[in-house]
Design a protein that fits this description.
- The protein is an alpha+beta fold and 71 residues long.
- It has one domain (2-70).
- The protein is 62% helix and 20% strand.
- The protein contains 2 helices and 4 strands, in the order E-E-H-E-E-H.
- It starts with a strand and ends with a helix.
- The chain crosses the membrane at residues 12-38, 44-65.
- Keywords: Membrane, Transmembrane, Transmembrane helix.
- This is DUF1049 domain-containing protein.
Length: 71
């Protein structure tokens, strides 16, 4: 598939679509939530919790993909 003369893989389009959906989902959830971290309970906006969760997931996925690529 080409866009403006450049080859674009279906994987790239899928990743872009998932990124847009993730950003929309995070932006739509703005209420505050209480999160229990073993002992303390912290109250944060849900968008912040979702953003941190997304970032941790992306970093973990990147490390796993990098490790598999080295094998």
């Amino acid at each position: 598939m080409t866009v403006k003369g450049r080859d674009v893989r279906i994987r790239t389009i899928g990743i872009a679509a998932l990124a847009v959906l993730a950003i929309w989902f995070i932006a739509a959830n703005t209420a505050s939530v209480a999160i229990r971290l073993w002992v303390p309970t912290v109250t944060l906006p849900l968008w912040a919790v979702l953003t941190v969760t997304l970032a941790v997931g992306l970093v973990m996925g990147w490390f796993i993909a990098r490790r598999r690529a080295r094998r």
